[in-house]
């Protein structure tokens, strides 16, 4: 501590470094100005890179006393870099994707023409880090990077109707600046949709405590597939009389399905935002008429539904100003995929923590009957909007933050002070502080304050921990058993023959050399580098040497490492040697003929060098590990040959080959080493086995299959740069606490878990989320509130120990209507996807699809049966808050992870990617965004750079148009056969689709296209791979058919 400070004083942010401009604007066509030569698309020399404000600010000073006036200290400075996280990549790579190798994350290898979409019918039955600490009851260790964060404006996912508590931002919106309002799409005003003869009853609700993905009962056979050409929710075959019932024709015997238990509370239909008022007793509900072809029977053939009334994502939405609480009540959050500005008035921002249901059911029976699941999506380092207040940093001095002595919850706005402020009641465990010895049982003497007439402390609005849902405390020595770890970055590069010949080694060295200057400055920053093929090569980078010295480790079965002080040195001492070495590595191994790769042994050797400090290990791998520790074989070849004979065993290829790498990963996590893997491969590398390393250590895998030295180095460079500069923390440990009556069931994501209550995170960043499933252990009181608190103990990149506390308090209800009114569409969908991703490696694919569909049907059936007052056999009634859930589920079951014809590595990457993907990025990843780019001039009056999104249906694709489809990872440009030659000439400089190059032209329309691609990259914080023109033919048509909801005549 530099100076004595009063307890609870927020920490002020240090001044920015010289020359730092957080509001630095990039040129709108910065890529356009540098991409005249697109035939060789590689990152430029670092000196020529455009301005890229680093998210790493100067080393923060010690805490200072709270100012008497003015805003409190902040973690992030105001301002938002507007440039994308990239250098100077081209708008389009130089090569089109070969047939059969389309981007896997967007559904490559689609079914052949004429194949209908899968039937959506239910089955008929369905660490030692910092040692133990009192904060978490276990071992802890873990930092966010100060600096101005980039806020990706999520527009791929679709905003729905807005709650009453959120409102478009206008010029009268307090201190927030006015944002451009976007024109919303006219969504249907009702949620009553007809379809022909839906099934009666539906599957039973999930059993208490059972997994939603449990196998169905063996006494009930699963449904058979639908006939070709018949869409989902179609009529049964002619001649089968449908039994009468409130839900239309049955497809299984009613006696086989037990009805859900009865529901207490009112049965009036919920009035959700955007939903029309209920009809009067003599008034008919609003419905859509069937457009039956002349002479056809209503029960024969596919249903003809007015598609203009089917719920669709809104094309755009105005910026929303959202107050987390209003009138001492929690407000329903806006959609995760919309653009909103949060004002923290007690509850945390929904960016940091969201619940699937914003009104907690009082009993497990009520939750089971609703068909919904209760879970939290936690993203502690989510990027805030630039107009939002930064997170406050509070320093309580040597005493540390005030906590409950019973459940160890941290002080938050919902703790109640009593006895003139001398004691307080915890909102989580409800334990009143008794008069025991020590300040832990009572309000600390230097934290006392009188209460006002309303029962609140008089200084509540002046203390961030008493009025904000998210706050960050400075950790004391009590929370650590060793000094915080320094920022250590170790690069491990594959130099095998395949990596050298494909250009992967040169691309990795070039990317590393350009991001060296983006590493955090300071005496604590250290770096190291090693290469590997059949042996491991360390390099001594000490300044005393005239040039780097190679140290070879030949034993890949029992590896060892040179002295740590020789291979990991301070960045300030080895910068010149490091740049020289990276420049010479590709030529050093140019003549190598070693095809083997000792990946596991190299990771083990690097870990031994980092064992005493921990840090980030970044591995560049190009071939299947075939030598030394953790060597693997090409299981895909053997598995593909046996799939026809034993299709039920195909999912085992998505499991690790053995436990060797898993054991190594646990040891890495124990010593706080986070591993990120960059796969620059052209062949099968068994991602299922390799991925256990990054999933256990809180890292990430990047897949560049098939790697191209012409187009992929730009994406590799930008991915590496964002990986290093994004807000992140080290040696972290996280725990979620709940009110009495609710408890944590399990955690899902990328972490290491040693004890049931905590998760260890050697590394965590703004792109990682953790799903926390919840369950009842007691009955809650109707009208009360249920609280959740997430505490993350971590270390910043500057070696400071912090505790980020996020609190959320939601009302409890015993009314089923309120559950559906408070349902969160995006979070529920994220729950479905993440749970399915966990089940895919251990469950047959067909069963996973059926289970996902059953979960969706359970929710819709419960709403129809218990909440809808008017129900006829020809109507599909959807809850307003979840009206897009069937559409998202249809897109989900067509995704790469649930397709048997996809590559095993592509499916493995998909599983690992979605397991920790935040909700705002997951929705567009599964349900991509398509925009028309042939009429960009029509948007001249619109302030938005990106045109409105189009529904993913074949009717929206014309042979005269050009369209761009993107999901945050991949992008394709579709060029129709009959497109106007003048448009082709302006966009691509040619008059025929057969002559389309991949370079930008110097005209306004082409620059607008380049601006659109750049804006998408900025929003997604991703470079977008495979932005290439696709001419409709063969495999590309099947790809588009798979993306656009299957068969054109039957897709919704």
Can you tell me about this structure?
By secondary structure, this protein is α+β, with helices and mostly antiparallel strands. Strands 1, 11, 13, 16, 25, 27, 29 and 30 form an eight-stranded mixed beta sheet that branches. Strands 17, 18, 19, 20, 21, 22, 23 and 24 form an eight-stranded mixed beta sheet that branches. Strands 10-12-28-26 form a four-stranded antiparallel beta sheet, with helices on one face. The N terminus and C terminus are likely disordered.
List keywords for this structure.
eight-stranded mixed sheet; alpha+beta; disordered N terminus; 20 helices; 16% strand; 35 strands; 1052 residues
What's this model, at a glance?
20% of the residues lie in helices and 16% in strands.
What order do the helices and strands come in, and which of them pair?
Blueprint: E1 9-10, E2 132-133, E3 138-139, E4 166-168, E5 192-193, E6 320-323, E7 325-326, E8 329-330, E9 340-343, E10 353-355, E11 360-361, H1 364-370, E12 375-378, E13 392-395, E14 416-418, E15 423-425, H2 464-467, E16 470-474, E17 488-494, H3 497-502, H4 504-515, E18 526-532, E19 536-540, E20 549-553, H5 564-567, E21 569-570, H6 571-588, H7 599-610, E22 615-621, H8 635-642, H9 660-670, E23 673-679, H10 687-697, E24 701-703, H11 712-725, E25 728-738, E26 742-748, E27 759-765, E28 770-776, E29 785-795, E30 801-813, H12 816-821, H13 825-839, H14 845-866, E31 876-877, H15 885-892, H16 904-915, H17 919-926, E32 929-932, E33 962-966, E34 970-975, H18 981-988, H19 1004-1020, E35 1025-1030, H20 1035-1043
Parallel strand pairs: 6-9, 11-30, 13-16, 17-18, 17-22, 22-23, 23-24, 34-35
Antiparallel strand pairs: 1-13, 2-3, 4-6, 5-31, 7-8, 10-12, 12-28, 14-15, 16-30, 18-19, 18-21, 19-20, 25-27, 25-29, 26-28, 29-30, 32-33, 33-34
Helix pairs in contact: 4-6, 4-11, 9-10, 10-16, 13-14, 13-15, 13-16, 13-17, 18-19
